[in-house]
Amino acid sequence: MNIIDKRRSLASSSSRSYRRRARSAIRNIAIHHSATTSGSAEAFARYHVNQLGWPGIGYHYVVDRDGSISLCHDLEVVSYHVGNSNSFAVGICMVGDFRTQSLPEAQRRSTLNLTRSLMDQLNIPVENVWGHIEFPGYSWKPCPSINMQNFRSWLREEGAELSPIPAPTTTYVAGARQRTLLTRGDQGDDIRALQERLDELGFNPGPIDGIFGPQTADAVMRFQRTASVAVDGIVGPETRRALRDFEHTGEQPEHGSPTDEPDEREEMYQSETRRMLRLLSPMMRGADVQEVQQKVGAATDGIFGPETESRVREFQRREGITVDGIVGPQTWRALDRMNGSSGIRYQRLLSVQTPFIRGEDVKRVQRALNVTVDGIYGPLTERAVRNFQRREGITIDGIVGPQTWRRLFNE
Ligand SMILES: [Zn+2]
What we know:
Residues 245-271 are annotated as: Disordered. It comes from Halalkalibacter krulwichiae. One of its GO terms (molecular function) is zinc ion binding. With 411 residues, this protein is of the alpha/beta class. It folds into four domains: 3-165, Peptidoglycan recognition protein-like (Lysozyme-like), CATH 3.40.80; 189-235, PGBD-like superfamily/PGBD (Muramoyl-pentapeptide Carboxypeptidase, domain 1, Orthogonal Bundle), CATH 1.10.101.10; 272-337, PGBD-like superfamily/PGBD (Muramoyl-pentapeptide Carboxypeptidase, domain 1), CATH 1.10.101.10; 360-409, no CATH class. 35% of the residues lie in helices and 7% in strands. A six-stranded mixed beta sheet has the order 1-5-4-7-3-8, with helices on one face. Strands 2-6 form a two-stranded antiparallel ribbon. It binds zinc ion. Zinc ion binds at residues 32, 132, 143.
């Protein structure tokens, strides 16, 4: 796998920087397309920094159409690409607009290999590899516009190792194996790729036939003039670079938008330690699914299927929260607020003790107060309890007794 390290060379803000996290905080891999027919890590970085005012490029990796991979950030960097889920997601962006373009084989293989290696490194299961659209709050966003069910099954395919990437067909881009100069009379796949690229950029090169004839030469010269490089009808290193980086002027740059920045609910997302659950294929399973089913009144088989999803939607509608069928932090919290036999009831006084008190009841209090849910009643939890008591106008002692418990859970 060929990865080009661009961490120090891409555009970045001189005044702002992204937050960092521990690697262990990473739970999801997010797959994007750029929603532009062309582009590069360099171009996206410029757009994100200069137009959106972000600290740096939004993605950790960019995979070009020829399969070459750019490393843009350390995995510890919390960059912007999936809004409130940024704090626990790694972003991979494939250059292309898959609403209208197909996914080239070299790019597909590279993206799969990269994703697999990240899953290994970060211990992330395949069911936590999500398309942008699969993250909470993004059901409206057609990104990455490939079938994620297929993508996950490719990841799962047996003989996990993919054969080496075949010689790239898009040889006009910088790469190892390629003819240095393309001129009139040349034939081959690299000429075909050149013609496709010219066509994509709106410089009609005539039939896409892999033959560098007069029409292709004309298109190359028109392109060279527009891109302000030497106009000689020959594709050398300078023209190659220009072809790679050229941005379609009429095209709306959709890769990365202000909605990918976190909002005030980010903290809630960060403190959530449970998995996000949703309808995926194959379906997600586990004790957490069962817990949700119990609370929303679905059959408790521990498998997140269509019925569970529709019950979750009904629940969300009743609660007046975003109706997306995804159990993310907001829905978990609403579920925690529910009474009923499955909820944890008041058991004992909670206060800072040596050693610290631990337990499910502590977790419940922590969730309700939006502090880290570790089940340990320490100073931070105590402080949150005091703040809560102050807001409620009850005795401020940092101890959860029956009164504070009742106020927290309406029980
Ligand atoms: Zn996206």
